[in-house]
Amino acid sequence: MKEITPSINLTVENSIATITLNIPERHNSLSGEDIAIFISHLETVSCSNEIRVLIITGAGQKTFCAGAALDQLSNGQLNGDLFTDLTDKIAAVDIPTVCIFNGSAYGGGTEIGLACDFRVGFAAMKLFVPPARIGLCYPVRGIERFVRVLGINTAKRMLVASEDFSGDELMNIGYLTHLVDKDSVHTRGLVLAQRMSGYAPIAVKAMKSLCNQSVHGIQDFDNACRIAASCNSSADLKEGLAAMKDKRTPDFQGR
């Protein structure tokens, strides 16, 4: 019997989880079933106390993700809201998330990257969002994410004008956070993840949360101060200060 290869893989090594889109034969476009598996993996990551960083990447050399599977969009099996449910859940992960672009990104694949904290790409990659070209309106929550992260002018270039962007242009507009040679993209993303996985997890989660809240304007300042104070009274802070004094690598336990 032929072994069935999972469409979305989850692996964990040394406190770093990696979710890999593993459907290169269809440019890693996601069906409703694939999205359900992806969300299940995100829930596994979110429930773990051992995982400190999440990497999202794709299999193959050409495409990171081509968004939603067009055949299911066409026949009504899949809609944009389901895809946006996925990107909302990526954005809600409380540990750092790193999107490593193994190839180009199109449509919803662009938003998967946008939902991550860090995006590592290369000059020759391409990106465009095609709904305007085919008569679709991009999902409302997705449009909100483009505007919030990239600003209104760049969001309009991507969505309304449906422009094509190269890796260099994506770095210039602030979509990519890191730009490297294609041969180095996985190494650069992994080095970033490894570095963050060695930091104090309470402080990392707190600052990610407060950064995200600040985008909207912190609504509950007292609660934000409590989040910050939880770091300042943690055992991790004591360990960090002791390690600095002893000139050794700290052993953070997330307490």
CATH superfamily of the largest domain: 2-enoyl-CoA Hydratase, Chain A, domain 1
How are helices and strands ordered from N to C?
EEHEEHHEEHEEHHHEHEHHHH
- Strand segment count: 10
Radius of gyration: 19 Å
Low-confidence stretches: none
CATH architecture of the largest domain: Alpha-Beta Complex
Give the total of domains: 2
Coarse structural class: alpha/beta
CATH topology (level 3) name of the largest domain: 2-enoyl-CoA Hydratase, Chain A, domain 1
Q: Indicate the mean pLDDT.
A: 92
Helix content: 40-55%
What's the story with the biggest beta sheet?
Answer: 6 strands, mixed
Q: Report the span from N to C terminus.
A: 48 Å
Just give the CATH class of the largest domain: Alpha Beta
Notes on the protein architecture:
The chain is an alpha/beta fold. It has 2 domains: 8-197, 2-enoyl-CoA Hydratase, Chain A, domain 1; 201-246. The chain contains 12 helices and 10 strands. Strands 1-2-3-5-7-10 form a 6-stranded mixed beta sheet, sandwiched between helices. A 4-stranded mixed beta sheet has the order 4-6-8-9. Helix 1 links the parallel strand 2 (16-21) and strand 3 (53-58). The model has no long low-confidence stretch (mean pLDDT 92).
